[in-house]
Specification:
The protein is of the alpha+beta class. About 30% of the residues lie in helices and about 30% in strands.
Length: about 100
């Protein structure tokens, strides 16, 4: 699987009822847990004082990431995404294969 850095900003459409927001957020938490269990969601952070997320996501390619991973998030219609494909850096101390 490839890794992707994904920056997510979620904007609730004006006029959306709190019940709908709460329903989607609850469903979002459940779906994120499922994606973490399958290895598609590796890490997720929220910058201090900001209402956005930064995460490391995994998929076989960018098409799968958009269609079968991020596209399944209940809040996806309200999200703006920035996706950056990642590759291992030769000096990454977390690399599994230090011989490359």
């Amino acid at each position: 699987m490839r890794e992707f850095l994904v920056e997510i900003t979620t904007t609730v459409p004006e006029g959306t009822g709190q019940e709908e927001v709460d329903r989607r957020r609850s469903a979002e938490a459940a779906r994120a847990a499922e994606l973490a269990a399958t290895g598609n969601l590796a890490r997720l952070w929220r910058p201090v004082g900001e209402l956005r997320s930064i995460g490391v996501w995994r998929a076989t390619d960018e098409e799968e990431l958009h269609e079968k991973v991020l596209g399944t998030l209940p809040l996806r219609p309200w999200m703006t995404l920035t996706v950056t494909p990642l590759e291992s850096h030769p000096n990454d101390p977390g690399r599994l294969d230090a011989s490359r």
